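Appendix B. Chain record.
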Amino acid sequence: DPADSPHSSPSASSTPQSPVLPWEVIERAIDLCAGDKATLCALALTCSHLHPRSLFVLFTNVDIQSQDQLMKFHDAVQAAPHLQSVVQSLSFPWDNFSPFSLLSILPGLRHVTFDGISSVNTDDRQLSQLTPLGGRQFAAGLRSLTIRRASFPMPIAFLNFISTF
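Structure tokens predicted for this chain:
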């Protein structure tokens, strides 16, 4: 009789279970990875249950280092509109890419950091794009604006730039 055999497999009721962590602990562990993009990407790809939280953390505070990353980020939020409202903080270099179309589709944006603004790309045509028809500001929820390494030809250019926010 196989049931009496010393080599029989254990019944389903005696099979050891993997430890189960409360979902809050798992979310907290993902939150603690906020500064590690590679880990968040790996978590998002590891398990369908980890994917939403990992993307949320990855897209909440976005720090972009290059124009190429900025373009890819723009394409990603265009392709996945549900991520647009997740972005709360965005930092990026402002070189040749006009950020206005990107900033206008991020309704949850609260903090923006521009890095490297020159007078070449702050002309009136670009600044007028910031205020859509109807005169309302595009970034009404913006709480802080940081500008690093900026160059404006005259103080009025700086004031015009700031007034758009």
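Further analysis of this model is presented in Appendix C.
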